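It is worth pausing here to work through a concrete case rather than discussing structure prediction in the abstract. The textbook approach is simple: state the sequence, then state the predicted structure, then interpret. We follow exactly that order.
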Amino acid sequence: REGAIFSARPPRSAIARLQMAQDNYHQPVLEREIVEFFASQSAGVILDATLGGGGHSASLLAASPQRRVIGIDRDPEARDAAARRLSVYAGRVRIVAATFATMVEVVAEQADFLNGEPITGVLMDLGVSSHQLDESSRGFSFRADAPLDMRMDPTQGITAAQYLATADLHDFVRLLRANGEDRFAGAIARSVLERQPQTTDELTKAVERAVPMAARRRGHVATRVFQALRIVVNDEVDQLDLGIEAALNVLASGGLLAVISYHSGEDRAVKAALHEAATGGCHCSYELGCVCGAVPRIILRRASAQLAGAGEVESNPRARSARLRTAQKVLS
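Step two, the predicted structure:
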């Protein structure tokens, strides 16, 4: 994979103007909390495993002149936007086309950029960005009619429409139920597969036909169906499991891990993976204590997820569903 190192640093006033315009591509959530969490790791390299438009990375770089960042993302539009935003940080940034499940390989390939420095932090900001939702041609949202694509990397894999063309009814029902669509999962799955939608508008209409008006909950009736398709098209479940394991492998002793999730299934998976690492996989009886010799890999920094404050939610409604979980790799 090829990375990009930037080599020119403009005056401080230009940096300030750039940071004020961060939300042109995507407004990062829990930005202050992320900067504060990584404050103790002022040197070394942070791996931003879901770079997006570079909002979190910009704030982390601005907070410490000794810090450097490797940012990875599979979306070429995101990488381009991040390259523009982070161009003010000279040789302190490298951007790589990759998924966060491949962090170990990325770190190995960026030995020249690391120059012997450790990975002192990993940030994973999961889900879809505001830009991806707003860019109607990507097919992530029901807000505008567009081809039913939903791929994070539009150059690889199958589209959502292609997935539906070969999907098994029972598998699709299970997928919808796993994403919170319980009562009408069967009816929705049959309606969608019978109509084989090719656009977001056709998918929305297929869902609406299956759910009676009186039974519709608050919010758009197709929200969870779009979410389920996006997750399966981008293999997000396996990517998350592999990504957290990769993060723990690349982190130096004492390094910090922060994971932001946006829906309950995602947060449950993060919580379970971090619990497994914090206990070393021990399943011994709590009353009897551990007798299996399990060795914890991390220490949880908080017992529960951290939420966005009321002020941030008001200015950025997407932050309402954000859940931040944090951990530190055990000192060796």
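Step three, interpretation. DSSP finds 15 helices and eight strands in the chain. Residues 37 and 208 are 43 Å apart (CA to CA).
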